Amino acid sequence: MSEQKTTSRRDFVMGAATGIGAGAIGAMGLYSYTPAAYKHFVSLPRGNREEFGAVRSVKITNISETSWFDNATLMGDIQAAGGLLVNQYTIGWPPFGNGKGIARGSFESGLESIRKMIPGNLEEAWALQSKLGLHPENPGGFSCLIEVESLDGTLHKYLLDSGWSFDWMDKAFKREKIDQMLAAHEIEALFLSHEHWDHFWGLPVTVKYDDRIPIYTHNGFYKEGLQYIAATGHKGKLFVQDKPIERIIPGMVVVKYDVPIINRVFGETSLAFNIKDKGLLSISGCNHQGILQCTSFLRNNLKYDNDKFYGIYGGLHISPFEDWDPKYDDLVISLKQYEFDKIGCNHCTGVITAHKFVERGYPVVKGTARFRSKTADYLGNGDTIVF
């Protein structure tokens, strides 16, 4: 781990230009699969694969996969603010609204309005931002609880991401008793997959219940992101990952992908586990790196039981805005080569994608479509899966 670096890769426009050539919103899913995105990855010969141990099992509880509730509202805001390359902190969404309207928000003014309220008085903070920010009813958030059983029987609990809306996420945490686990310091770390609004901006909800929880981030976080972490009142360790693979416990690693993402975000991390006698499990927040690139990197760089991809969970970023393109059919078909035993998808995978997985007979673990999740064809809010 090292301090955040500022390098030429921060020129998001250079990195993402190819991704918007076909039109702003239509490219939001497709960009993850363009050469412009892939060129950022380091590839190693398969002979150098890293052994990292094994775990007995992994249980995932979906706290919230509903990052926003209406696609048209979110897409309309992004278009009106200037498109994919605009800085997310200036769009005007809460908690960084300042009452000046679309594309006139700012990190500094938004944060200043609630600085004294976070993390202790989140209801008041969100109520204020609901007046200052755009469409405060639309944010939800992505977050899941990961429970890992080591080979010796030890149970480890982790959070992946902390959502967006203070109000929605606090209620979701209470629904799944995450608030109690955090307050009892049962959760060993929070992994922030990337800096996007729907995975990161709800951080005060986690810090409210445990201000000393260790936090892991990609070293692509901008200065605003790091300042926001500090402003939440976080007093624990902040680990900024700067190498491709970071071991957490035997059988569990964090994998770093350097890829430009929409709205001036850079980089994403995913979690990988070697399930004893089963094979590899990948857990992602959004998978902006692209599912095929992700599986290829893991296959080339990690050594796991049976040399088999056992399962996958999370957002697969294929059609997050239901903007289906025939090219995505190739992605759906190509996943068959990995012969997953279990697929637990949701969030930015897209409802259409989930339907297509089911139609093709893939081993998708279905959900219950509760708590405002849109379909039972994927794991929705409150649902669980065990690998």
Order of adjacent strands in the largest pleated sheet: 7-6-5-4-3-2-15
Query: CATH homologous superfamily - what is it?
Result: Ribonuclease Z/Hydroxyacylglutathione hydrolase-like
Q: Helix/strand/pairing class, anyone?
A: alpha/beta
Rough shape?
A: globular
Q: Profile the largest sheet.
A: 7 strands, mixed
The helix content is 25-40%
**CATH class label:** Alpha Beta
CATH fold category name: Metallo-beta-lactamase, Chain A
**Content of β-strand:** 15-25%
Number of domains: 1
- State the end-to-end CA separation: 29 Å
> Over the alpha carbons, how many angstroms does the gyration radius reach?
19 Å
Uncertain residue segments: 1-33
Q: Which CATH-level-2 architecture?
A: 4-Layer Sandwich
Rounded mean pLDDT score:
90
Give the tally of β-strands: 15
Number of helices: 14
Order of helices and strands: HHHEEHHHEEHHEHHEHEEEEEHEEHEHE
Description:
- The chain is α/β, with parallel strands linked by helices and 387 residues long.
- The protein has a single domain (8-71, 138-386), classed as Metallo-beta-lactamase, Chain A.
- Helices cover 28% and strands 23% of the residues.
- The protein contains 14 helices and 15 strands.
- The strands form 3 sheets. Strands 7-6-5-4-3-2-15 form a 7-stranded mixed β-sheet. Strands 8-9-10-11-13-14 form a 6-stranded mixed β-sheet. It has a two-stranded parallel sheet with strand order 1-12.
- A hairpin with a 3-residue loop joins strand 9 and strand 10.
- Helix 7 (166-175) packs across helix 10 (203-209).
